[in-house]
Specification:
Structural class: alpha/beta
Strand content: 5-15%
CATH architecture: 3-Layer(aba) Sandwich
Bound molecules: zinc ion
Radius of gyration: 18 Å
Number of strands: 8
Helix content: 40-55%
CATH superfamily: P-loop containing nucleotide triphosphate hydrolases
Number of domains: 1
CATH topology: Rossmann fold
Shape: globular
Length: 219
């Protein structure tokens, strides 16, 4: 069997580690990773026409409409040489966007990092961040030397607004409603690979690499 280049998508809820896995895969496979979040931030900072539109939605706390997201991502994808493979992170976020992506290029693998809601809440609600140097800790998994104090600069540690339990649960609800249906969409196309995200980062990564190698992708 001839090896094929990975033209992939990685998705999962916040706290699943999908961003980290995407970066690790891109490094190992030496292919570009295209992150929707990074792209949005860059466009907003650049104040491009589309970027200014994105800013308007974000500032009002609204979801950026699919048409706008699709337009931005399509333009970004056309800028890259994708012939030797790529990974998308944060896009598509729903079936509408996946349908648009489908018209643009053929995705040959979609990795779903699966993790229970309980585990997400446990991981994210324990996160603490330094108010000054922004270092991140975890109450039980990676505690600072002195409770509540940054080990690097000695400033106070705080929970981020995004990491409060009710905010996390709200976002999980949105994920299940909006993004999780991607699994059915891509399963039907025969390109869905489900990975257990409740293992240490390195195990998740090895699991992914083993499986994609067995599926005949260049690794
Ligand atoms: Zn600090």
């Amino acid at each position: 069997m001839r090896s094929k280049h990975l033209k992939g998508v990685v998705f999962g809820p916040q706290g699943s580690g999908k961003g980290t896995q995407g970066v690790l895969m891109a490094e190992r496979l030496n292919i570009p990773i295209i992150g929707a979040g990074d792209l949005f931030r860059a466009e907003m900072a650049e104040k491009s026409t589309l970027g200014q539109l994105v800013t308007q939605y974000v500032n009002q706390g609204l979801l950026v409409p699919d048409e706008l997201v699709n337009a931005l991502m399509t333009r970004q994808l056309k800028r890259h040489d994708l012939s030797r493979g790529f990974i998308l992170d944060g896009y598509p976020r729903n079936v509408e966007q996946a349908t648009s992506l489908d018209r643009l290029l053929a995705i040959n693998l979609v990795i779903q990092i699966k993790i229970s809601d309980t585990e997400v809440v446990k991981r994210l609600s324990g996160r603490l961040q330094c108010v000054k140097c922004k270092s991140v800790y975890h109450e039980t998994e990676a505690p600072p030397v002195k409770k509540g104090i940054c080990s690097l600069c000695g400033e106070k540690l705080m929970r981020r607004e995004d990491d409060k339990e009710d905010v996390i649960k709200q976002r999980l609800k949105a994920y299940h409603y909006m993004t999780a249906p991607l699994a059915g969409f891509y399963r039907q196309k025969g390109v869905l690979l489900v990975i257990n995200g409740e293992q240490p980062i390195q195990y998740v990564f090895e699991d992914i690499m083993n499986k994609i190698s067995k599926l005949g992708f260049v690794t």
